[in-house]
């Protein structure tokens, strides 16, 4: 623990040594090491893939006695779509909630290890989770708009953050970006609960991007939607990735393959088995278990 | 594949499904419900018969009113129900609004007669308005200084309404000091804006003050509401303008018609203005206009009925519950006895309860639901507290009376049987109920909404203020109003804290000794004269039940109002 803290304090930027050291006992860790070197390599040479904004190191999460995440080491690159896939109950949502510290709201949850956002460990004592969540927006699995008007839903984040100049304009921009504006522009005063499920989910996305966060976390945002609404949301995610870092949990392999740049595969027990470019994961994974999972031999 | 013979009887009598037990259970439940409802209804009818004594009227009187009022209204009701439901709704509102308006008018009239002079009211409202203005102005000028804002929110009303130190509580401080053997008088003080206004050598007339502080604000609010609804500035201005013209006309013409100017202004504000706005809206929309016939026919029917019975000399019932009963004090003779002072006492007691129990109870509920830890040692402690709040809700009311007696009268030395002591003792009694129902309401706000709010980077306070409370308020209010209904009928605590058995004068301040409706009813129940025990008592019970009914109806209206708007 102390050694880990020391390394992280000394070098938050150069991660390869820390990660290699941390993951070496893990038998499935080899691709990870390569991976992190790979990311940094591309970063230095081409500059097209962003530098990592979110990095977890030896992240363990427990709910009471049960362990939900095991030694997760992961570096999420900036302004790309990173997908998380894996069987139900393997800890994908848990990992997502670690990033913006929504786990703080669950009494039973205990987080060990480090998670860096822009070089700062978010579990340090001097980090205010409220400030963190203002930079990292979240869209939940089930659409959860407030029982307020459409306008008030989108304006909510701006109001609580005191950014009330040009409110109308910002609301309109957010709704346009979420591809919802044309459907609701004449009924902004209507209750958000009167929208359809797909519209509600896009409203939640508009609500999350209205405050212009750095990262958007999405937990199965399309799981309750029909194919048309789903494809709208997928288009939207690809567009968002031009400006935001998007982390998305999904159960839909095709979706992950279609929209993500990187894919992380978690398997039962909360271990991160493989993390790599999406193409590589789906065409030629290193781990046999990942291949089995993707091809549906094992779930 | 199909090896079984097709069975023909699978859907009918011979099927394996057995509904017998289910049907029997359903029938039993229905019978029990009906039994409960019918017995309560019979009891109420029985009491109402004693209170109104309809059979003491001449048959002619009954027949006349049946013909002029009951039959036409019943016919209209059937017509609405069968053929014209929107009109039924309009009839319901146009009959209900004046009743509520008259109740409010009566309430304010009593307020001005018993508690405050118009000047005191004026000074209080102006001071509150100035305090509100200060708070808003500070919020605009220095929106970032949160602590300062809290201080202003707290100090501004104290400075404008009470002054420093607040005299209202001086005697309490002095008494406490005296108990410690100190002579501690607060001789120097900053007087409040309210007191300054009352010291002015020149004050406007009563009607001008009422116009400024009651008629215009209410008319303004109604105007704003209408403007919002119809998106028209002109209509808002029209509402305010017309109301003002009516008010001034009434002030000039009122004395000629024998209506006091104050009463006239109250009537305008609470009865005529809302009714006028509603009726105008109905006529403009043109939907359910026929509903307006209902109140018109009711009024006409009563008028015609009274002329006919007057001309033919039919005598009405010798009802115990009449205008005299509601407006006079109790007396040695049953015929003159009334419930007025006890009613004022009850209402003032409710005011004390609302001002103390509501904030304390809702605050506690918010803490327990939103802030209190649920794990660790503190979590165990909180669970213990929650269990005991449940237990407190079941403690007999006599015990709360005893608590009130010990705490407020023996220890704090407050006047025995005063409104404030009664209010606090009964308030303690319903506190656990308020907490539990408020907790229930807060808990019913879905967790996904809290998650959404926290996920947006809202603080806990912002989440509670903007997401949880707006959703929970209807439930909190319904629970509280039902608890208040319980409070208004409690008798045992009033006996323990020594509320007056019967009083001739209504209380003029919260520290006056008073009687309350249930206490007065209890006194009547032990009078020797049977007229008291049968007639006056029944009239008192019906009055109490009517007040309760109004409160519960308010609760239901509030709940329905907020439920599906979102
Ligand atoms: N609030 C909680 N309290 C206790 N245990 C929890 C809680 N939330 C999750 N868990 C446990 O943690 C493990 C991981 O859960 P998590 O919700 O992260 O899975 P997931 O990968 O998102 O699954 P799914 O795909 O079904 O959403 C599960 O075994 C679950 O039982
Ligand atoms: Mg999940």
Question: What features would you describe in this structure?
Answer:
- The complex is a heterodimer of chains A (299) and B (566).
- Chain A has one domain (2-294): Rossmann fold (3-Layer(aba) Sandwich).
- In chain A, the strands form 2 sheets. A 6-stranded mixed β-sheet of chain A has the order 6-7-8-3-9-10, sandwiched between helices. Chain A has a 4-stranded antiparallel β-sheet with strand order 2-1-4-5, sandwiched between helices.
- Chain A has 13 helices and 10 strands.
- In chain A, helix 10 (227-240) links the parallel strand 7 (215-219) and strand 8 (245-249).
- The radius of gyration of chain A is 19 Å and the shape is globular.
- Chain A has helices at residues 2-10, 16-23, 30-45, 92-99, 129-135, 150-160, 167-177, 181-184, 197-210, 227-240, 253-259, 278-283, 288-294; strands spanning 52-63, 66-77, 81-85, 109-117, 120-121, 136-139, 215-219, 245-249, 262-267, 271-277.
- Chain A is an alpha/beta fold.
- In chain B, 75% of the residues lie in helices and 0% in strands.
- By secondary structure, chain B is mostly helical.
- Chain B has 4 domains: 30-55; 58-104 and 288-316, no CATH class; 105-276, no CATH class; 326-565, MetI-like fold, CATH 1.10.3720.
- Chain A binds chain B through residues 100, 102, 105, 107-108, 130-135, 137-138, 140, 142, 144-148, 156-157, 159-162, 191, 193, 204, 207-208, 211, and chain B through 143, 373-375, 379, 446, 448-459, 462, 466-467, 470-471, 565-566.
- Bound molecules: adenosine-5'-triphosphate and magnesium ion.
- Adenosine-5'-triphosphate (ATP) is lined by residues 63, 68, 86, 88-94, 106, 108 of chain A.
- Magnesium ion (MG) binds next to helix 4 of chain A.
